[in-house]
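Lab notebook, bench 4. The sequencing result for the construct came back, and we need a structural model before the next group meeting so we can plan mutations. Quick request posted to the team channel:

Model the 3D structure of this chain.
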Amino acid sequence: MKSNAKEYLKEFAISQQGWLKALIYDAIESNGNVTNERKNKIFKHLTDGADLNVTEPNINEEDLESEIYITKLIHKSGVNALKENQTIKFTKDVTILYGLNGAGKSSYFKVLNEIVGGNQKKEILPNIYAETTKPIEIELKFEEKGKQSQTINWNGSNRSFDLLNKCKVFDTSYLKGLLETRKAVECVIDEVLFNNQLPTKYSNKNSRIAWGELKKLNNDSVTIDKLETLHGRLSGGAMHNGTENEENPIEIQEFNTMISDIETILDPSDQ
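Done. Here's the predicted structure in token form:
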């Protein structure tokens, strides 16, 4: 039995015609986000017999006994405007990369995403500010638990290396669909239930929360009253009046107390 849907798709694609195999493989590599340019190439192959490059995705079966640790990544050249010969050392616990917008955090993520074969293929661009572009040169060191360290050199021409494709990576783009769905749901709750009006604009600064309407939906008026009190403490008034938090800063002690109060409401059994 296979461990995920992509393994079944890959098995199905093996026996298919070139255009369909390419389409399925690309869907696997891009997590369903095949570009229009690629679709056109596949269509030209189907209709005119044009040459078509088909690359088999490297999907590794789940191995819960195996642990992979990435220990070092060296950017030698070729990726965006990243500094050449820059080294990032990873710990076996948590490594945090931080910096201003444009510092290169996303570029390093894209490199890792391609090397481990993330669910969504990421385009890696050269340094657009340089007069001449340099080839991609990445050196990555990793180790499998209980075994010696290994090194790979990557030039951007392939993705998803054996063993490393056991690693899981994601960024906000992986959750785009989920976040969009949540925003739509929150819009309905905010505008219809809280404001007792038809949906207009999610960021309505003049909205008022109709706490009485909430009590009609939930007989636990005590909890609603507590939420109203917490909301007032957060927004600076008994009702949300569009006043931003920057204008009414909350002390950290007060914030921690609010979190504790919310936890009490959500799960009073823990108290």
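The domain at 68-170 is CATH 3.40.50.300 (Rossmann fold).
Will bring this to the meeting.
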